[in-house]
Amino acid sequence: MKYFVFKVMAEEAGFIDTYPHGSPADWKFEKGISLANDFPKGGEVSFSDNYPDDRNLYDFQPNLMSDLLISGRARQFIESLGITNAEWLPVVVKDHEGAVVGPDYAFLNLLGAEDAIDMARSVYEMNHISKDQIGLIEQLTLSPDRISPHAKMFRCRTYRRLILVREDTLAAFQREGLTGFRTYDAEGWDGVEL
Predict the structure, then answer these.
(1) Beta pairing class for 86-94 and 43-46
(2) Is the pTM of this model over 0.90?
């Protein structure tokens, strides 16, 4: 089974640069822990004033936090795939003027993590603050035998900011025509996002 690095990217997207008011601390969104009880009900996010001309909506909406902000259509499809580690944190997306343009978006918080990275064979630098986390990857090598056969889209235990997607799940996303993301072969990935 092949795996791919999953990155949210899109052109002229209405760029989101903050979580809703009253959200948990930013660093908690990278931990793979449940945030549903602390996430504000009726949360709102808005297109950034730093990008006044960018207004496009995508199924995976680009954001400064590098999180998975997902349309209602994409959420329904992901739920149909049986991705069991998904926690949904609903928000309304507003444009620069405050008009609702995405009434049914949600942050997809992937719970837990897989021991997917071969730490002995990968080339990386550890994070200077979170000492148990990779800060920079130069060559990624996976340990597929340590990834659960049920893991379709997941965080990596030693690099929780990195999201991997299984090849059959990616193929389903592509068949469905989901937008706003780019992928890279995980095996041998050099950390570059073009």
Answers:
(1) parallel
(2) yes
